[in-house]
Amino acid sequence: MTQLSIEDLSVEIEGKRLVDEVLFDLQPGEFVGLVGPNGSGKSSLLRAIYRVLKPAGGRVVHLGDNVWKLPARDAARRTAVVAQERMGEFDFTVRELVQMGRTPHKGLLDGDSAADRDIVERCLAEVGMAHCATRSFLSLSGGEKQRVLVARALAQQAPFLVLDEPTNHLDIRHQLELLELIRRLKTTTLAALHDLTLAARYCDRLAMLHSGKLIAFGTPVEVLTAERIREAFGVQATIASRDGRVRIEFDLER
Q: Which of 39, 108, 143, 194 has the fewest CB atoms within 10 Å, measured from its CB?
């Protein structure tokens, strides 16, 4: 059964169409990368999926249900999000922030159970931040904050995970560790990624956007062609593929 379907989804802000009738799906356990240049509509598409920007047309269907017709708590139990927006100036410890991921599973006055605490500690360990559990979130580096926000999403234990540029602010080691973790979790995941090489390495399929339109959807080998990269990014690309792996070298168009 298809886990998530994006059905002719369009997004508009102040009369400007940012996403134009995008159509693709995700299968259970699949890691799909959303790629395209800045301004192509990646973040707007994700915000429509996790119920921040109401679609101007089309539907987002999760396990047969239109996500925009679900109660907010039910939607939060189904979709965990790591967005680009940062926390404000409210200060929490790392552990407190990750505990927020358990909120959709609680009643208004419920405290943390032993099971909740175990989940939080395990998620912190999975992203390599258990040693910072008592530190202030605001005292962390950008990369450390990103890993904590991923831990909060994991603590939500939702069957669908949305990540908007999750490798921003991470050095290359932590980029690789984070994407390895996502692959290992086998949670159905849609992630906007700016690094095409990492997207090709870790994603099962890719959706490529350009000017709000979906111009390609398929395996990395199918999507990352020199022609499509030139169309979307305006650069020359030399592509080499072997055993399903894609290697890309870029050059400016002359």
A: 108
